[in-house]
Design goal:
This protein has one domain. About 50% of the residues lie in helices and about 10% in strands. A two-stranded antiparallel sheet has the order 1-2. A two-stranded parallel sheet has the order 3-4. β1 and β2 form a beta hairpin.
Length: about 240
C-alpha cells in the first residue's frame, strides 16, 4: 500500500518527524531504541563560531544582568525586609552539564523552611511563595543572581532549566533519555520555558523534556533569538512563573 501511495506522488513520512515539525517538540516516548539514530545533535554543538558567539552572549548578558541586579538591589532588599522577612538570597544544588553539581543562586521567594516537611514539586500558585516573592517571580527579578552562575560558566542564558538531583534521579527512572538534557549547559531561559507552564507532574516534565530536546537538536542563532524575544515578552507583559 505504501508503494502505491509513492507511485501516486504522495510523500510518506514518519509520525515522529511530523510530530516534531508541527509541535516543535521531540516525541521521545515514541522513538524508543532508535533514539540516538533519530536524534542527531545540532551541528552547532561542534561549530566553534556558534559556541564562541554563545559564550560571548553569555558573558555580555551576565554583565548587564549583574549591573541591573545591583541597580534593583536596594528596592529588593526593602521588599524582602517587609514582605519576606528572612535571608535575601537562596542557594540550591542543581544538576549542570554532564551531570556536574553546582549551586544555583536566586533571590528568595518562599517562606523560610519551605521544605521542612520534605521536597515537593513547585506548583503554580504555590502557597509557600510570599506576596513579594510572587512579584519577584512574575517579573523574573528573582533570577537576576543567576547571572553570576552564567558568568562563572555553570549556566548559559539559554538552555534547559537546571533541576535538582532528587528530581533528576526520579525522572530519569520514569522518562526515557531524560539525562540527554544534561549534554549542554542549563539555562536561565529555554525553549521549554517559553512554550509551557509550570511543571508539577511527570507528564509536565515529559512535555518540557520534549521541548528541551528539540532545542538541543536544532539550537542555532535564530532559535536563540526567538527564545530571547519570547522571554523578554514574558517579562514585559508580566507573565513570569
Amino acid at each position: 500500500q505504501l508503494t502505491l501511495l509513492l507511485k501516486q506522488g504522495l510523500t510518506i513520512r514518519e509520525y515522529t518527524q511530523v510530530f516534531e515539525e508541527i509541535t516543535k517538540r521531540i516525541p521521545v516516548q515514541f522513538v524508543g531504541k532508535d533514539f540516538y539514530k533519530y536524534f542527531p545533535f545540532s551541528r552547532s554543538n561542534q561549530n566553534k563560531l556558534y559556541m564562541f558567539y554563545h559564550r560571548a552572549m553569555d558573558i555580555v548578558s551576565s554583565i548587564i544582568g549583574i549591573v541591573l541586579g545591583t541597580i534593583f538591589l536596594p528596592l529588593i532588599i526593602i521588599g524582602n525586609i517587609i514582605g519576606n522577612r528572612g535571608p535575601l538570597f537562596y542557594t540550591q544544588e542543581r544538576i549542570g552539564k554532564y551531570g556536574k553539581l553546582f549551586k544555583i543562586i536566586k533571590f528568595r521567594t518562599m517562606i523560610k523552611n519551605a521544605e521542612k516537611e520534605g521536597m515537593v514539586w513547585a506548583i503554580e500558585n504555590d502557597k509557600r511563595v510570599t506576596a513579594f516573592g510572587r512579584f519577584l517571580r512574575n517579573t523574573r527579578l528573582d533570577e537576576l543572581p543567576q547571572f553570576i552562575n552564567v558568568l562563572k560558566g555553570e549556566m548559559s542564558i539559554i538552555g534547559p532549566r537546571p533541576e535538582r538531583p532528587f528530581f533528576v534521579k526520579e525522572l530519569s527512572q520514569l522518562i526515557p533519555f531524560y539525562d540527554t538534557r544534561h549534554t549542554i549547559k542549563p539555562g536561565l531561559s529555554g525553549w521549554a520555558q517559553v512554550n509551557s507552564r509550570y511543571g508539577s507532574t511527570v507528564e509536565d516534565s515529559l512535555n518540557k523534556l520534549q521541548y528541551d530536546l528539540y532545542y538541543i537538536k536544532h539550537r542555532n542563532f535564530f532559535l536563540d533569538i526567538n527564545i530571547i524575544v519570547k522571554t523578554l515578552s514574558t517579562i514585559i507583559y508580566y507573565r513570569g512563573q
